[in-house]
Design brief:
Elements: E1 6-12, E2 19-26, E3 32-40, E4 48-49, H1 63-68, H2 73-101
């Protein structure tokens, strides 16, 4: 997936529910090109296509949008985690480039 573009990764830990990991491939404009999801309780869980978010931008994702797309709670948490982690990564990149400029 890394060859296709940047990858945003989101996770929702299990507990009594199944754990979920979502990989979202995004282009230079943060538009989601492709998605994959892994959910399950065992080590035998594998990645499956998750294309329901294709065409959306990463920054327009919200809890309301996830509910509107009928995503279950764990997938919604993982999607929002991917968005937040990518935003944090962008801020760290901006901070490091500002420090290098000084």
């Amino acid at each position: 997936m890394r060859r296709e573009g940047r990858v945003a990764i989101g996770r929702a830990k299990g507990g009594f529910q199944t754990g979920v990991v979502i990989l979202l491939v995004i282009d230079d404009y943060c538009k989601i090109i492709k998605g994959e999801v892994m959910e399950g309780r065992t080590v035998f869980a594998g990645f499956k296509e998750f294309n329901i978010l294709n065409g959306l931008t990463l920054f327009e994702l919200s809890d309301e949008l996830c509910k509107g797309l009928n995503l279950d709670f764990q997938k919604s948490v993982a999607v929002m985690s991917a968005k937040k982690d990518y935003e944090n990564y962008q801020m760290m990149q901006a901070d490091s480039s500002n420090q290098n400029d000084q």
